[in-house]
Amino acid sequence: MLTDYLPHYRIRLRTERLELRLPDLDDLVALADQAAGGVHGPDFMPFVVPWTDAEPVERGRATILWQLRAIASSTPENWAMPFVVVHDGQVIGMQEVTAREFKVTREATTGSWLGLPHHGQGFGTEMRAAVLALIFDGLGGDYALSASFDGNGPSAGVSRKLGYQADGIEHKTLGDVRRIDRRWRLDRAGWEAHRTHEVAVEGLDAAALAMLGLDAPPA
């Protein structure tokens, strides 16, 4: 079985409405379909790399290749878990968690997107809450990090709702335009104070933890 070789594929995050899991090939096709259908409006680019500025088939292809690269290049010291987000049996988007030297830093970074038909229904908050439970409860993390460009009100709103605090800015470029990327940081106390979703973390056994550079579950 795949999980004999990639045990982190056993990990499942379940909320009231959602399941998050690492994608199989069918999941990748469904995720590509969401990307091809669009993930944001035409007037604002929310990504540092403007991968959505392409024809539908190219967006879908880029999605599949990016997910495969993220999984294939992960190591215990520098890992990525690009979960697909499933609602009522349908893949609706993706929620990524990445970390470098997590065993030492105890911090991880999240990023996400949803297919356009699934915006405005609270899924963004719920899927971020799912991976925060993984970071803090499952892996014993101390901090979760995120970022959003100025003008990305929905992403910033999710961060504020879940207890993140502003953590400075960076300047990024899109073509010849300078943009402000606002960093967000959530510590354990802030997460505990803003928990609004029950999350079940499944499959996080010793073999899966080893894939993420950890020797044992948190105390």
UniProtKB/TrEMBL annotation:
Keyword Transferase: yes
Coiled coil: none
CC annotations in GO: cytoplasm
Pfam families for this protein: Acetyltransf_3
InterPro entries for this protein: Acyl_CoA_acyltransferase, GNAT_dom, Ribosomal_N-acetyltransferase
Domain N-acetyltransferase per the UniProt entry, residue ranges: 9-189
Keyword Transferase: yes
GO molecular function term, any single one: protein N-terminal-serine acetyltransferase activity
Keyword annotations: Transferase
PANTHER family recorded: RIBOSOMAL-PROTEIN-SERINE ACETYLTRANSFERASE (PTHR43441:SF11)
Name of this protein: N-acetyltransferase
